[in-house]
Write a structure and sequence with these properties.
The chain has a single domain (about 5-125), classed as Rossmann fold (3-Layer(aba) Sandwich). Strand 1, helix 1 (about 15-25) and strand 2 form a beta-alpha-beta unit. Helix 1 packs across helix 5, helix 2 runs parallel beside helix 3 (about 65-75) and helix 3 (about 65-75) runs parallel beside helix 4 (about 95-100). It is an alpha/beta fold and about 140 residues long. It has helices at about 15-25, 40-50, 65-75, 95-100, 115-125; strands at about 5-10, 30-35, 50-60, 85-90, 105-110. Strands 2-1-3-4-5 form a 5-stranded parallel β-sheet, sandwiched between helices. The chain is globular, with a radius of gyration of 14 Å.
Length: about 140
């Protein structure tokens, strides 16, 4: 698949191995993934790339946490409709409620199923079901 046809996903997670797992899984399908390691980088990347179609945010990150990034995205008209999946090892009910109140599209607790994450990412970005075969690998 040509790069310009790929769906751009921003993954913000301060745990590099988690980011690599997500990147590897999503790139089996029609996704191109940019990894960043803190909330400040996530906001900078959003400013730099208007083509981002999906954002995955870890809650606990340096500088700016994922919930604060989500709040900022929802305040900006240009980013308000971009789907956001919130990931966290701290599956506390307060984080779940806050993420959903801020407009998260999904909330997943680590460890999560990469297959489920891929399926949800595909659903949120409108990937046709025939391209979902990548989840079987």
């Amino acid at each position: 698949m040509l790069e310009q046809q790929r769906i751009h996903v921003l993954v913000a997670d301060d745990e590099p191995h988690i980011g690599r797992i997500i990147k590897m899984k999503l790139e089996q399908g029609p996704f191109a993934v940019t990894l960043v390691y803190d909330g400040r980088e996530a906001l900078e990347q959003m400013e730099a790339d208007p083509e981002i179609a999906l954002v995955l945010l870890d809650v606990m990150m340096p500088y700016v946490n994922g919930l604060d990034v989500l709040a900022k995205l929802r305040l900006e008209e240009r980013w308000r409709a971009v789907p956001c999946i919130v990931l966290t090892a701290a599956g506390q009910e307060q984080h779940h409620k806050q993420a959903m109140a801020l407009g998260a599209s999904e909330f997943l607790t680590k460890p999560f199923s990469p297959k489920k994450l891929y399926a949800r990412a595909a659903e949120l970005t409108g990937v046709p079901s025939e391209e979902m075969g990548a989840t079987e690998r």
